[in-house]
Amino acid sequence: MTRPASFKYSKTSPEIIRLAVMLYIRFPLSLRNVEDLLHERGIDVSHETVRYWWNRFGPMFAAEIRRKRVQQLRAFSKWKWHVDEVFVKVNGKRHYLWRAVDHEGEVLEAVVTKRRNKAAVLKFLRKLMRRHGNAEKIVTDRFASYKAALRELGALEKQRTGRWLNNRIENSHLPFRRRERAMQRFRRMRSLQKFASVHSSVYNHFNQERSLASRDTFKLTRTAALAEWRELGAA
User: Fold this and answer.
1) Could you give the CA distance from residue 81 to residue 9 in angstroms, rounded to a whole number?
2) Separation of CA 24 from chain center
3) Domain end (from 25, 47, 73)
4) How many angstroms separate the Cα of 91 from the Cα of each of 32, 174, 188, 193?
5) Global pTM?
6) Are the C-beta atoms of residues 25 and 58 closer than 8 Å to each other?
7) In a domain, 170, yes or no
């Protein structure tokens, strides 16, 4: 049996690579934690191998997930966007991670910038609109640069602000924050951008909103998500 092109020069089976990448991205584990978990399953690889797999295959898996989900949810995700930013230390210096989610918590976009101003908001919103179209409502906090950027884009009437209106995205920051602590922060802006993009796609893939579904429905959707993951890169 011929291997897919993405795994062509890898001596390890695709199933093990997919498992290692999933463990590292999906759960708040360090590279050495993943190495220990694989060893417990009889798979002997070093944490540096896990790092190599994540760097090589993580973006590829994320791109495949994103391509499928953008096509499926493009119209559905236009009703309402929640937009917010969090600061992240990169090599001791403060950077800003801008994130957008739809009304159901689906992460739409993540962009890293060095500054928190109108230009940064415009960069983020233009990328978001280029990929997902235009939303009917855009929920933000009262940061003045959002208003200035939306006015320039001709979408100021779509802005909504309020004390609790943006709780949806405030809560969506938490999985990333847990991963950030496990990774002991980031050393390069490029690494932060890469991980934020990949993490958001994998989070979308496995996020089942278990509190809103019955146990039987949750088990079915979880099984389907895992089955789809095991097919990534197989084409």
Assistant:
1) 41
2) 13
3) 73
4) 21, 21, 6, 14
5) 0.83
6) yes
7) yes
